[in-house]
Design a protein that fits this description.
Layout (H helix, E strand, L loop, with lengths): L32 H13 L8 H16 L24 H8 L8
Helix pairs in contact: 1-2, 2-3
Length: about 110
């Protein structure tokens, strides 16, 4: 009978890998909570679940823009984050305008 932590358990070979972009501060002051709440609601509304539509991607862009503005993550190009968009057909959308205003011209640091 082998117990937890016994030889041959396999856990000794596990080597964690660090996140690609390193660690970053949590949003303890809820500075970007309004945006992440909208993004999570958008994800829950998706049918089929897990679909990555443009509305949710724009909210993700707005959230990351908020984090960059508040110093909660390093500024980076949208293309490096997988969030580079062309002009949307609904240019008068508040989500699109806010996302574009949140730092589409940021320089890589």
């Amino acid at each position: 009978m082998s117990g937890f932590g016994a030889p041959g358990g396999g856990a000794a070979n596990y080597k964690p890998t660090p996140p690609e972009r390193g660690s970053f501060p949590l949003d303890h002051d809820a500075e970007c909570k309004h945006v992440i709440s909208s993004y999570l609601r958008c994800l829950r509304r998706q049918n089929p679940p897990g679909r990555n539509n443009e509305e949710c991607r724009l909210l993700a862009k707005e959230y990351l823009g908020c984090r960059m503005e508040k110093g909660l993550m390093a500024k980076d190009e949208w293309s490096n984050l997988g969030l580079e968009f062309g002009k949307t057909a609904t240019g008068d959308s508040n989500v699109a305008n806010t996302a574009d205003a949140s730092g589409s011209d940021m320089k890589k640091s």
